[in-house]
Structure formats: C-alpha cells, structure tokens
Amino acid sequence: MTEHRFYGDLAPWWPLLSPVDEYAEEAAFAAALLSGAATLPGGAISPLVDATRLSREATTPAGETAAPARDAAAPARETAAPARETSRRPAGDAAAPACGTATPACGTATPACGTATPAGDAATPASEDAALPDEAAAPPGDVAAQAGDTTRRARDAVTLLELGSGGGHNAVHLKKWFSMTLVDLSAAMLAVSERLNPEVEHRQGDMRDVRLGRVFDAVFVHDAIEYMVTEGDLRRAMVTAFVHTRPGGRAVFVPDATAETFVPETDHGGSDAPDGRGARYLSWSYDPDPGDTTTVTDYAFLLRDADGRVTVAHETHETGLFPRDTWLRLLRETGFRPEAVTEQTTEDRTPRTFFVAHRPG
Ligand SMILES: C[S@@+](CC[C@H](N)C(=O)[O-])C[C@H]1O[C@@H](n2cnc3c(N)ncnc32)[C@H](O)[C@@H]1O
Asked: Which of 73, 190, 270, 342 lies in disulfide reach of 100, CB 3.0 to 4.6 Å?
C-alpha cells in the first residue's frame, strides 16, 4: 500500500485542511444508522434523520432513491461532464439523510480473532428505539433518565469501533453517543486524533487484518474504506468489521462514491489557525480507466507556517470504486445482511450511499 505524506509528515495539518465542523452532520446521520435510533442520550442525533421513514424505506425492495444515479456503463464516467466544484473535504467528506434500500439474504463466515498495536482509551452511551428492520444494536433505555446519570451511561454504553479513523474528526462527534475505539494505519494520524480525543482508545492497525480480540455493538468505516482498491482488500476489510461486530450488531460503511455515483470533480478547502498557520488544498479526482476498480485523486497543498513561510506539496491517491451490487454481494458473502441507505444531506454534493450491514444474531 502506498505511503501517503498526507497521513504521515503532513498529518499535523489535517485539522486545518479538514475542519471537524464539516463532519458533524454526516456523523449524526451515521450515528442514527449505527444505533438504529433517532435519539440518543444527550439529545436528537440529527433533525434530518427521520427514523420512521428510514424504517419504511429500508424495507422497500430495490435500489437508491436520492442519489442522481449514473449509468454504470464504462464510457459514461468519462463523458459525464467536466470536473465540477463541490464541498467535499480532502479524501473524505461530510453531512445528512434520504433513504434507499436493499433486501439481502444471509451468508456466513466466521474468521478468528487476533491482535493489534495499542495507542489510548474510551467514553459514552445508549439509544432509544429501533429504526431499521433487524434490531439489536440499540440497547433500549429511558433516555431522559440516562442523560443525567453518568454511572449508568458508562455501564450501558454502546460500543463502537471505527476502522480508518484518521484524525478523529468523526469520532469527536460520535463519542457523544458511543464508547469508541479507534483504529488507523497511520501513527501520525492517530497522534492527531489522540490530541482531539484523549479519552478514547486508539490502536494502530490495518483494517484488512487487525484483530482486537473482542466484539463491539457497531463498527463504522467511513472514507478510509476508499483505500481498499481491489475486491480482495474490500472483502478483507468487511471480514474485519464482521469479526468485531457482535451477533445482532451492525456495521456501517461509507465510501465517498460507488461506480454509479462517481463524478470527476475538483474541490478545494482549508482553514487558518489563530497562531498564523494556515493550510489550503486543491483536489482533482478522475477515473483514468473506467474498466477497473480504482480512481485517482491528485492533491496540491499550500501550507503556511506561523512565521509566514509557505511550502507546497503534491500527492496522488489511488482509491477504490465499486458498483453498489458488488458492495452488497461482498457484504452478503462475508455473512452480513446488508442494505443500502441513501444519505440525506444539506450539503451541495451527491448524497453518499451508506451500506448498513446487519450481523445476524
Ligand atoms: C481521509 S483519512 C480519514 C479521516 C477520518 N474520517 C477522520 O475523521 O479524520 C483516511 C485514513 O485512512 C487510513 N487508512 C488507509 N488505509 C488504511 C488501512 N488499510 N487500515 C487502516 N487505516 C487506513 C489513513 O491512514 C488515513 O488516516
């Protein structure tokens, strides 16, 4: 796997390049799917999440509802318009809800558990009613009573493992509702996350083979899943999620795009720190070979130190792109009962497909 400076010596710039606030809406949508609830102790997850609607639409047969579906046929990707501006963050993303579908079958596969490398510790709580069909991930409880009772909150905590947690920008929001464990390949990104989330457990590991030797109520894999560039790697990441999901629990995977929704585009962003530092990026993604399972994103970074000195860095990232049916098939083969839920978002971009994978009880 390619070593990315972005997640290495450039990692300290992550908080400026990809501000945590940009993750809030999408993290709230993910929290609802991870817990199967519209409300968790501490308040509603997101005003955009309508649990009743989620439940109804999630059991309807057939495919996506909101995403502007693209013709999956190869050449379409190339001709589909010149690159466009969006509000995406670097190699990652943002926001909240609409709903889609999928009706799976069951498979099996129960790999063994192994190990990982330590890095930190953990924190928060439970949920209310179940929104999605196969319910178990959401421990019931009196939300109002739990909200003010920290002892009970700790005991009833819903445990969540995030694979590819990066700088912890999802975790900073998700930890309000879950007791989290964060795993990432990069020690430099884990260090950034540990500063932001000192109370959360951090472990260094590869999502394709890390084994923590325990199970969680839910497993979350956000934009880092993009770094699975072959079906084999994607399957390995799914198996890792499966072995860490308790029977009756669920895993949620959020690729930036599927083959049906991918659009070549440019994006830019960044922010400034009070001490004078600042960072900006320009990203440019395209699909050089629509016949394979990868796309390419080039990044240009402008990084300004507190003394005003500016350096430039360029990096190329190869990321995976798979059809929605491939996602659903691989999840079924792994042993999950998957469904595809189309994100509801207020952001000006294509809604993402959230693959919600239920581990049979
Ligand atoms: C875009 S960043 C994730 C940012 C994250 N969503 C956040 O909240 O800050 C992508 C992350 O994927 C991690 N990554 C890439 N391949 C990985 C693998 N095989 N296993 C675990 N993490 C991986 C990188 O180290 C990087 O931190």
From this structure: 342
Q: How far apart are CA 230 and CA 182, in angstroms?
A: 24
Q: Of 67, 130, 68, which is closest to residue 100 (Cα–Cα)?
A: 67
Rounded to the nearest whole angstrom, what is the distance from the C-alpha of residue 188 to the centroid of ligand 1? 11
Mutation test residue for ligand 1: of 2, 88, 172, 186, the one with most atoms within 8 Å of CB: 186
* 145, pLDDT greater than 60: no
Q: Report CA(166)–ligand 1 centroid distance (Å).
A: 4
Q: Which amino acid is at 235?
A: R
Residues lining ligand 1, CB < 6 A? 7, 91-92, 164-170, 184-186, 189, 206-208, 222-224, 227
Half-sphere exposure of 311 (CA within 13 A, CB side): 8
Give Cβ neighbours of residue 301 (< 8 Å, ≥ 6 apart): 6, 10, 13, 17, 279, 280, 281, 312, 313, 314, 315
DSSP, res 20: G
- Which atom in ligand 1 lies closest to the alpha carbon of residue 164? 22
Q: Identify the residue whose tokens are 């649990």.
A: 51
Instruction: Tell me the best of 18, 185, 285 to mutate to test the pocket of ligand 1, counting ligand atoms within 8 Å of each CB and taking the most.
Output: 185
Residue 221 CA to ligand 1 centre (angstroms): 9
pLDDT-derived band of residue 89, with 50, 70 and 90 as boundaries?
Answer: low
Decide: 187 and 110 in contact? Cβ < 8 Å: no
| CATH architecture classification, 5-75+92-263+322-358 | 3-Layer(aba) Sandwich (3.40)
Q: Where are the domains of the chain?
A: 5-75+92-263+322-358
User: Which of these, 193, 194, 247, 257, lies nearest to 218 by C-alpha position?
Assistant: 247
Q: What is the pLDDT of residues 243-283, one digit of tens each?
A: 999 999 999 999 999 999 999 999 999 999 999 999 999 99
Q: How far is CA 178 from the centre of its chain?
A: 15
Distance 183 CA to ligand 1 centre (A): 9
Predicted local distance difference test score (pLDDT) of residue 148:
36
At residue 53, φ and ψ (nearest 5 deg) are -70, -40
Q: Which of 345, 316, 231, 359 is nearest to 2 (CA)?
A: 316
